[in-house]
């Protein structure tokens, strides 16, 4: 009866095994899918409500929060990082499993007529004991790897968020710059016509004429460069979201042209400390230190013999034997001291890397705060002095032209000065936003905008 059940048990064991299923990657199909991808605003709206329930959703209108929500759904880098978490968690589960038992089957034939049977049959199991420091080190290292995968995901999300932020800054700033340079080019064309009349009348030199012509050509070129920068910003924005074929035209950024004063951007020392300790790059160096610590624990445990239990069964020519062996995997002749020394050196190195990462993060925060202050001082100076004076002069030129006190050439020069002052003010405003983005990047947390609703919602849930 037992012999009849053996094939059945073997069949059931094989049926319980996982079978391999190939999953080839077709790059052409992937490329077509990326090219034909569609944006589902309903799904994005659900994602916005999931991460920030208090945020308002306006169909067809995009802001930094909704763009980030779309990126969480469609960006391939974020998807790859999410898959990395699943892989690391699966590997952490596998690390808890002990090594498989080895089954050894033996048979022997002896041509001995005096024995009751010429055959010897036997089997033995080799069962390594998965206990102690070696097991703990393996499990800890796998758990740290899972943490590292989560920090990689967080870093990927943050990198995408910053790419969206900078693409929006570039797009908005260059749209304004292109419009102003186009106005300046048109103004230079009118000024050129007026100077040509002066030259014809002998009231101006051709040097003045060529200077105005060159300034007009320069304005045309800069307007074209700004338009191209707008196109590049839209491409970068779509790529950051993960839908390169989609154009996000209706994007709003409330308060872009009136950034908050520096006093509201300053964070306390405790906030800076907490933000730095929550940066994924710093956390990853701490994970690497933890893995080095686990590796050292494992090398210390390998100083001692690894035990293997080997129970067996032998049927020797009618006689049943039950052998039991204990195997010891001995450490190296140096009692693993060289490997321990190497692991200690690695741990020390990882500790220095943590210190370096914290120091670099602190320096980045200090540098960003300094740039935020300098950018706002420059913007205030341009708006309060240069722009104010240039617009006042342009207004006076309008009145004098109407009164006949000046001609079109002098009027155009005054108006061009006002346009250049507005361009400089726009560049200063762009510098402020880039400085704020650098500060947020250094802290790895938003300081303004709708993304703050994410943290507020999570805090209320807690």
From TrEMBL:
Protein name: Outer membrane efflux protein
Cross-referenced PROSITE patterns: PROKAR_LIPOPROTEIN
Family: Belongs to the outer membrane factor (OMF) (TC 1.B.17) family.
Matching InterPro entries: MdtP/NodT-like, OMP_efflux
Record organism: Novosphingobium pentaromativorans US6-1
A single MF term (Gene Ontology): efflux transmembrane transporter activity
Domain of life: Bacteria
């Amino acid at each position: 009866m037992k012999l009849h059940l053996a094939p059945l048990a073997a069949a059931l064991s094989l049926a319980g095994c996982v079978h391999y299923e190939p999953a080839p990657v077709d790059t052409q199909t992937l490329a077509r899918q990326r090219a034909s991808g569609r944006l589902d605003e309903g799904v994005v709206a659900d994602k916005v409500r999931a991460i920030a329930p208090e945020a308002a959703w306006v169909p067809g209108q995009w802001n930094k929060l909704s763009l980030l929500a779309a990126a969480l759904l469609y960006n391939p880098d974020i998807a790859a990082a999410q898959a990395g978490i699943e892989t690391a968690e699966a590997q952490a589960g596998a690390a808890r499993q002990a090594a498989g038992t080895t089954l050894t089957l033996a048979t022997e034939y002896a041509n001995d007529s005096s024995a009751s049977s010429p055959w010897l049959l036997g089997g033995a199991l080799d069962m390594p004991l998965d206990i102690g420091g070696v097991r703990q080190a393996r499990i800890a290292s796998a758990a740290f790897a899972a943490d590292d995968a989560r920090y990689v995901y967080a870093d990927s999300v943050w990198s995408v968020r910053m790419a969206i932020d900078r693409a929006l800054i570039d797009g908005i700033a260059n749209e304004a710059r292109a419009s102003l340079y186009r106005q300046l080019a048109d103004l230079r064309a009118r000024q050129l016509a007026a100077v040509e009349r002066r030259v014809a009348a002998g009231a101006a030199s051709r040097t003045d004429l060529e200077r105005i012509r060159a300034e007009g050509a320069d304005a045309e070129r800069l307007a074209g460069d700004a338009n191209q920068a707008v196109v590049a910003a839209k491409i970068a924005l779509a790529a950051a979201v993960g839908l390169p074929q989609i154009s996000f035209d209706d994007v709003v950024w409330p308060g872009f042209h009136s950034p908050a004063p520096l006093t509201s951007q300053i964070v306390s020392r405790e906030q800076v400390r907490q933000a730095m300790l929550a940066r994924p790059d710093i956390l990853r160096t701490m994970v690497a230190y933890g893995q080095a610590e686990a590796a050292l624990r494992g090398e210390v445990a390998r100083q001692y013999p690894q035990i293997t239990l080997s129970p067996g069964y032998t049927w020797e020519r009618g006689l049943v034997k039950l052998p039991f062996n204990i195997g010891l995997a001995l450490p190296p002749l140096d009692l693993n001291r060289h490997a321990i020394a190497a692991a200690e050196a690695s741990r020390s190195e990882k500790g220095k890397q943590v210190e370096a990462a914290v120091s670099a993060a602190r320096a980045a925060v200090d540098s960003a705060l300094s740039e935020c202050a300098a950018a706002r001082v420059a913007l205030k100076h341009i708006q309060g002095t240069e722009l104010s004076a240039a617009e006042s002069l342009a207004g006076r030129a309008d009145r004098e032209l109407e009164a006949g006190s000046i001609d079109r050439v002098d009027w155009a020069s005054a108006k061009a000065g006002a346009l250049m002052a507005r361009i400089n003010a726009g560049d200063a405003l762009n510098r402020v936003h880039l400085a704020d983005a650098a500060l947020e990047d250094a802290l790895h947390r938003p300081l303004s905008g709708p993304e703050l609703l994410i943290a507020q919602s999570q805090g209320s849930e807690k």
